[in-house]
Amino acid sequence: MKLITTALVCLLLAAMWPQDATSKSMHMPYARCCFNFLNKLPLQKSIRCYRRTSPTCSHSAVVFRMKKGQESCALSSRVRDYLKKIKPC
User: Fold this and answer.
1) Which option is the CATH number for 30-89: 2.40.50.40, 2.70.150.10, 3.30.413.10, 3.40.50.150?
2) GO CC: one term (predicted)?
C-alpha cells in the first residue's frame, strides 16, 4: 500500500511541476541563438552569407558565416544597411 501511495504522490508532484514559460530552449536550441555580439563588423569580402536568428531568441541578431568557416553574431539593428550587400545562406 505504501508503494502505491508513494507512486501516486510522485505522479501528482510531477504533474504539478511548474513549467518555465519563458524558457526558449524548448522551442529552439541555444546553438541557434546569439549571446555574444561583434563590437566591430567584419569586412564584407570576408563574409560568405548570413542568416537571422529565430524570433524565439532573446536578442534579434544576424549570424554571419565567414569564408573561413566560423560564424559571428551581430545585432540586427547595427547591420541593416550591411545586409543589402550580402546574400542570405
Assistant:
1) 2.40.50.40
2) extracellular space
